Amino acid sequence: MKGSCLCGAVVYEAEAPGLLIGHCSCRTCRKAHAAPFTATARVPRDKFKWLAGADKLRAFESSPGKNRHFCAICGSHLVAERPAEPHVILRVATLDEDPGVKPVVHIWRSHEMPWLAYEGDIKRFDEWPLGR
Amino acid sequence: MKGSCLCGAVVFEAEAQAGGLRIGLCSCRSCRKAHAAPFNAYASVPRENFRWLQGEDRVQTYKSSPGKNRHFCSICGSQLVAEHPGEPDLLLRVALLDEDPGTRPVEQIFRSHEVSWLAWEGDIKRFDEWPSGRT
Question: Which pLDDT band holds residue A18 (cuts at 50, 70, 90)?
């Protein structure tokens, strides 16, 4: 399946039957994504390839040996990886096609911040609240 | 309260309006792609209540729709704020705050844009840290 960043400059293809998707609420993902949590999945390196815009990628080493790659034009994070490991860690929210599976785990919930509480009594809207 | 990006190069300070920060979650397609996450947490603050304390020269901008600018750190890729030039408010990315604003999210918008492979409710195993025995 294919995925891309917000601006469309970077496009990738990943093949991974049985993709295991997990949400991560760790502090580093919270800061990197500026979001309550991100969704990730491992893909073997030989099943992942950049189709466009590899020259637009920028990497940030968020902890020793862990590189987070994002689009230098729009800032979308696309994959993270440790050079010695045989897989990349896909940012599943950038997929443009349904991998056919749903998230199975949610890790590092102890890092969650109270002001990002996303469960419980929150008004939910399909789009934008009327009148605003 | 203060906030910062992942690498720490960019630091900002924001003050909520009277009544406190009104935090919302947004699941729209643009937020999903910009943040590479199921949803983003935002809050409006008047422009005069926001200032960069450090690293403004590291801030890079992408116009995600006509008149909407999303600013992110050029070093680490953290989304920082979004804004429409001409509007009196900025949209903070609340996940970057380093201090508790004391309020909690009150709404979630654009749930119709959510995709099945990012489902976060329901039957998911949840761990405080990392499941033991996994490498």
Answer: confident
Report chain A's mean pLDDT, rounded to a whole number: 96
B135: pLDDT strictly greater than 60: no
Of B96, B118, B131, the CB nearest to A34: B96
How many percent of chain A have pLDDT more than 70?
98
CATH for the A2-112 domain, from 2.170.150.70, 3.40.390.30, 3.30.420.40, 2.40.30.20: 2.170.150.70
CB contact under 8 A, A37 and B120: yes
The number of angstroms, rounded, from the C-alpha of A42 to the middle of its chain's C-alpha atoms is 11
Phi and psi at residue A33, to the nearest 5°: -95, -10
Q: Tell me the whole-structure pTM to 2 decimals.
A: 0.96
* Cross-chain residue pair B39–A129, CB shorter than 8 Å: no
Cβ contact B108–A68 (<8 Å): no
Name which of A127, A39, A89 is nearest B37 in CA terms.
Answer: A39
The pLDDT value given to residue B132: 76
Spatial CB neighbours of A17, under 8 Å, sequence gap ≥ 6? none
Provide, as residue numbers in chain A, all residues whose Cβ is less than 8 Å from the Cβ of B65.
Answer: none
Domain B2-118 class in CATH: mainly beta
